[in-house]
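User: Run a structure prediction on this.
Assistant: Running it now.
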Amino acid sequence: MQTISQGLPPHAKSSRISITPPARPRATPLSSLFEPTPQTSRAAHSATKEIAMSRNFPPLGALRAFEAASRHMSFVRAAEELNVTPAAVSHQIKQLEHWIGMKLFDRGARGVALSRAGQDYALRIRDVFDRLITTSAAVRAQKSRRIVQIRAQLSVAVSWVLPRISRFNQMEPDIEVQLQGLPYDVNPSKGGVDIAIYHQRGDIDGYAQSVLFHGDYKLYAAPSLIARNGVLSPKALLSQPLLHTVSTNPQIRAPSLHDWFAQSGTSAPELLPGTQFNLEHLTTSACIAGAGYALLNDALAMAAVQNGLLSPLPGPSIPNPTPFTVVTKAVLKEEVSTVLKWLRAESGNAPA
């Protein structure tokens, strides 16, 4: 009998916002913000690098006043936006012009207009301000977002939670679910996990545990395999490729194909031919690929059946002796309670 097993993957990585200044030799973040364009003169390029290297920052209040005035093309409207007087805006821009060493605005009886240097500088400043706003908003969102971590048996994570997660994202866009497919750990909160989903085990002090779903075990095959062979009798299936899930965990007591043949009244050899897998979602994937016939939990196979990837076959339906349970802390945060309520609602749609 051929055996195929696959190790469990490492911890799922969560998507996080990372703000890292570009690593550039002999340059400060300021020089990266003011990257010269092809239109910049060689002298201006040299001056920008010189300023950046000395960390001689321009007056930041004056920069803000210039950005607002260049956007509105008016000292008056810039003053209204910044809640200062037009004279204060004019003074700050003169301060910036003195610092730069060139005129940024042409002033006249009809108002103000950007000089050629002012036009170029305004484009650069506007880009810098946009990036500062975006970066600051990202940092604030990082702090305020609500995250719920679910740790689940790999087959449950892949075959049950994952096909449903898009529905939750549509219902609760402000809660970020981070799903980890990992082996069972006696401490559900290890690594900051909020909710754990595994085969039922004994009680855990300080944690609440309840059945999420059972699911019965039925025989499945890919529609392409059924189309090629037709619906076979249990006796005829003994000569077909069989797919076995053989867990290395003695606490998981899932029915086997031996049990299915026995309940169908078919005498089967002690050693059934076929291919073994250590995880049910591997067995399911092989079954979807048309590699053979498999005994699968119908709650875990439901998504594949709904998508037309698997079809149940006639024969016995064997109850699951070790249901899947959800484990949480006794006292829940609001967002964890929301996710838990959603999981229970989803389990109500699964076979009992």
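Residues 58-143 form a domain with the Arc Repressor Mutant, subunit A fold (CATH 1.10.10.10).
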